[in-house]
Amino acid sequence: MKGKISWLVCCLLLVSATVWAAPSTNGSTGLINTPSADVLREGQFSAGYYHLKAGGVGVFDFGMGHNWEIGVAGFRYDSAANRTYLNAKFALAPETVFTPGLAIGVEDIAQDGQRTVYAAASKALPFGFRIHAGIGNGRYDGVFAGIEKTINPVSVLSGNNTFPATTLIAEYDGHYMNYGARLSVVPGMKLDAGWRQHDFYIGMSFTN
């Protein structure tokens, strides 16, 4: 019986990777401004747009198979030079019931801004919590970490309407504390809003 339960939980973790997957404001799959250990499955993609303090960024990620994810983030600023980041991430180990997922990645490979190499770990906990931690150079300048709390839909006054599933996020990106909420509007589509690097941000993404 215990073996069957462990197998079921493992399957749920694999399925949940699709639920969790969403691009960060720097393009890589992750939280607000930091990556997670999640990597898109082969043929899966994420696309989105975030309105930031100084402009906006369009992001796109694609699962290449063999645990690879590649992506691009195009920053278009109001009063500064535009930048385009090419990103890549590789999953070293999948997340299981007892062990965290592990991944390594590079952001801004062509060094249009600041090339950054990092390693990240992610682990689901009971009661809808999930933690992330990593280390990197470049814009992370050391350690980064984050925590998520997912609030599942609840009925409204016993009716058929429900609140969208919402994930509350808090992270430290190596320099700033950022806070946000990620709402699952419809399957695959998420609405993000919060406080990033001392300013409000809002965005929307879709993961197939």
Automatic annotation (TrEMBL):
- Which UniProt keyword terms apply here? Signal
Keyword Signal listed = yes
Under the heading InterPro entries, the entry gives:
YbjH
Span of the signal peptide: 1-21
Pfam families given for it?
YjbH
Q: Which domain of life is it from?
A: Bacteria
Tell me the protein's name.
Exopolysaccharide biosynthesis protein ybjh
